[in-house]
UniProtKB/TrEMBL annotation, chain A:
The keyword Transport applies. Pfam families: ABC2_membrane. The keyword Transmembrane applies. One of its GO terms (cellular component) is ATP-binding cassette (ABC) transporter complex. Keywords: Cell membrane, Membrane, Transmembrane, Transmembrane helix, Transport. This is Transport permease protein. It is found in: Cell membrane; Membrane. Its main location: membrane. It is a multi-pass membrane protein. InterPro entries: ABC-2_transporter, ABC2_TM, ABC2_TM_bact-type, ABC_2_transport. The chain crosses the membrane at residues 21-41, 53-78, 98-124, 130-152, 164-184, 219-241. Residues 20-244 form the ABC transmembrane type-2 domain. One of its GO terms (molecular function) is ABC-type transporter activity.
UniProtKB/TrEMBL annotation, chain B:
Transmembrane segments: none annotated. Belongs to the ABC transporter superfamily. One of its GO terms (molecular function) is ATP binding. This is ABC-2 type transport system ATP-binding protein. PANTHER family: ABC TRANSPORTER ATP-BINDING PROTEIN (PTHR42711), ABC TRANSPORTER ATP-BINDING PROTEIN NATA (PTHR42711:SF5). Keywords: ATP-binding, Nucleotide-binding, Transport. It comes from Halobacillus aidingensis.
Length: 246, 243
């Protein structure tokens, strides 16, 4: 266990040494919220304020960014440059590497979520989640669904560039079509159906719901879908995980 | 197949505790500091590692706080060599350890490899530099197109085959004539420089001298010499071609 913590700690440190990833993970969502805030905040349709709708959504988006970029693309890079292969010639067990990276991803996600929440509270009078236990559980389930999903999808890539390309595709698709950034009601019916195929849609429903309306027990359908995604992607990720691209 | 008495398929983890590998083109995380890498890899092995001795031996002290991506090729090789040897492996595999090193750094690398050998590790080095194999290795295996062509200590390898040659310079010497001599295996000609590989150097020398005396051909820098593993490798290649 010592090694897992040590590796997770190191990976977290190295994440902060890369200014670009720090910007995209921590500052970009805040900047986006601020931009959208200056566009939408006055005229929100429905009973909720701008922050109540969009802060939980961007926290959901950050699960996607963390799983695809902090975890998936980085590990694809490690596969390409032989970092994983070097581990393979030591007694370090494979699960410890994945555990360490999952731990690092979770830490980074938590920091980004707190940052968004604090920004919302300071700028837009956002209230903390109404059912905090439910929100935390929702986050946990979402991570469980997305981390292995991203690990699987990026492990199909041949190298870092294609892993980054796949990740950007998924991120952008979900950004615009899951209701995270643009209200789905604004979109044509067909796109509303597409949204419901994307896993982020359910994450966002769950986060917005437990933040503003009801405990997680009211969202059995969303929880079920995410758990199913979690099971399938854990199986796929462990079945197809490769240590080197040769 | 067994390595150190272990089955590599079934007992890989146990085996990994006892071997060290330095891959040719792999790196560690770009933003990892040298000391962090040493520390992390030390934690993979039970018991105390020879981290501090290695830092001394490889002179890594001044680079401990440098990120891996900021190191030059030679320093990167040293760091990965250190990572492969932290746990004093019984068996150490080095894949082209001196690739991309300047001549000075290469000699230093050889010195380190010798020290590791003297400390009791068995070291398997793959290399394209025959000179490296000749100077560094106690035993050399020549592998060509997947087949083991020769295996012995370098001296014996060189003695075994006709890598002994006569070298001289001559403007008018006939290449074709040299090939007709009975003991001659191979003749290399580079402008006026000749290398005559022969099974019986003395006899061939006698024939050459007689011929040159009769034909009034001038010879310069005449010497007996011994080829290198390089020559030996080329010889195997040519045998292959001629069947």
């Amino acid at each position: 266990m010592n090694t897992v913590v040590k590796l997770a700690n190191l990976e977290t440190k190295m994440f902060f040494r890369d200014r670009l990833s720090v910007f995209w993970t921590f500052l970009f969502p805040v900047v986006m919220i601020w931009l959208f805030g200056s566009m939408f905040s006055g005229d929100m349709a429905g009973p909720f304020t701008f922050a109540e709708v969009f802060i939980p959504s961007w926290i959901g988006v950050n699960i996607v960014t963390t799983s695809f970029f902090t975890l998936g693309t980085v590990l694809a890079g490690y596969r390409e440059t032989g970092v994983l292969r070097r581990y393979q010639s030591t007694p370090l067990q494979p699960w410890k590497i994945l555990a360490a990276h999952t731990m690092q991803g979770t830490v980074i996600f938590i920091i980004s979520a707190l940052l968004l929440m604090i920004f919302g509270m300071v700028m837009y009078d956002l209230q903390p989640p109404m059912y905090i236990g439910s929100t935390l559980l929702a986050l946990f389930i979402s991570i469980l669904a997305f981390f292995p999903f991203a690990l699987f999808v990026t492990s199909l890539a041949k190298n870092t560039q294609s892993a980054a390309a796949i990740s950007s595709l998924f991120l952008n698709l979900m950004l615009f079509l899951s209701g995270a950034t643009f209200p789905l009601e604004m979109m044509p019916t067909i796109l509303q159906y597409v949204a419901k195929v994307l896993p982020l849609y359910y994450v966002i429903q769950l986060l917005r719901g437990t933040w503003n309306e009801a405990p997680i027990s009211e969202f059995g359908f969303e929880v079920g879908i995410l758990l199913a995604i979690a099971v399938v992607s854990i199986v796929l990720a462990s079945r197809y995980f490769k240590w080197s691209d040769k | 197949m067994e390595v150190l008495g272990l089955n590599p398929e079934k007992q890989l983890r146990e085996l990994n505790r006892r071997i060290g590998v330095q891959f040719q083109a792999t790196s560690i995380q770009k933003k990892m500091k040298v000391k962090e890498a040493l520390d992390l890899f030390s934690s993979f092995y039970k018991g105390k590692t020879q981290k501090d001795q290695l830092i001394d031996m490889l002179g890594l002290g001044e680079k401990l706080n440098v990120h891996f991506e900021d190191l030059s090729g030679g320093w990167k090789q040293r760091v990965t060599l250190a990572l492969a040897t932290l746990h004093q492996p019984e068996l150490l595999f080095l894949d082209e350890p001196s690739m991309g090193l300047d001549p000075h750094a290469r000699r230093e690398m050889w010195g380190m490899i010798r020290t590791l050998r003297d400390n009791g590790s068995t070291i398997v080095v793959t290399t394209h530099y025959m000179e490296e194999a000749e100077k560094l290795c106690d035993r050399v295996a020549m592998i060509y197109s997947g087949e083991l062509k020769a295996l012995n200590n370098p001296d014996a390898l060189l003695d075994d085959v006709a890598t002994h040659y006569i070298g001289f310079e001559s403007e008018r010497m006939s290449y074709e004539y040299l090939l007709t001599l009975s003991d001659v295996v191979r003749v290399e000609k580079d402008e006026a420089d000749f290398k005559v590989f022969s099974e019986d150097l003395q006899h061939t020398a006698y024939q050459i001298f007689t011929y040159c005396h009769e034909e009034n051909i001038e010879l310069k820098n005449f010497k007996f010499d011994r080829g290198s593993l390089d020559d030996l490798f080329v010889q195997y290649l040519e045998k292959e071609k001629t069947g």
